[in-house]
Amino acid sequence: MKLISWNIDSLNSALTGASVRAVLSRKVLDTIAANSPDVVALQETKLPSGGPTKKQLDILWGIFPDYEIVWNSSVEPARKGYAGTMFLYKNNMKPKVTFPKIGAPGTMDYEGRIITLEFDHFYLTQVYTPNAGENLSRLSDRQIWDVKFADYLEELDKQKYVIAMGDFNVAHKEIDLAHPDSNRNTAGFTDEEREGFTNLLKRGFTDTFRYLHGEVTGVYSWWSQRARTSKINNSGWRIDYFLVSNRIADRVVKSEMIDSGPRQDHTPILLEIDL
Q1: Whether 157 is catalytic
Q2: Is pLDDT above 90 for 226?
């Protein structure tokens, strides 16, 4: 099975925008489609509560024919057009689709952050983990989220094995970002967030990239748009992951980043696994 996950940072912009960045985003979508994945997970879709328009769906089906599309958008009392997730999966697949609420604080459960696909012998779930925010204003809520999400995955894992993918918004170890020393108290690299991710793995999950590639350095999935040269200089972070139940880690064939060219922000990640 081949899976691809990507934080797209606005589906509408990627599909219909005229900016240089939008054109680059469409090229990334074409690259994803050329890989012919069984499942595509998209985060930060920023769609309205009603989901994609007919125009947006038609464009998506033009790129990904023969795929089913499901989405989870931010709804009240959460902000409109915020966060959001989407799955595209080949239409010969017949999963049960759920949009879990995990008892997260504030409006997090209403921000469209999780979709789960249940198959006969396994779960595929994607997540767009809440950012701790500027000045770490949401860090305490993020810590609760991390526990609740770990609880959720552990419950799934008791029933069937799990593949969890998405933007986890944390660089787990110092080797997962280019400049750890200058980012100690930055959202995504606080001790609290890193500990939260460690605790998630301790529940019985494997970081597939590290499983295959060990302590390799300089491989990232996100480069800040605020610094024009971040990607040129490879001043990146690895904050996007494929996690699997420990008991199927030996079935992982490939876990890597997909080249997104000059486009900054997130790059897609790919997992191949024998199921």
Answers
A1: no
A2: no
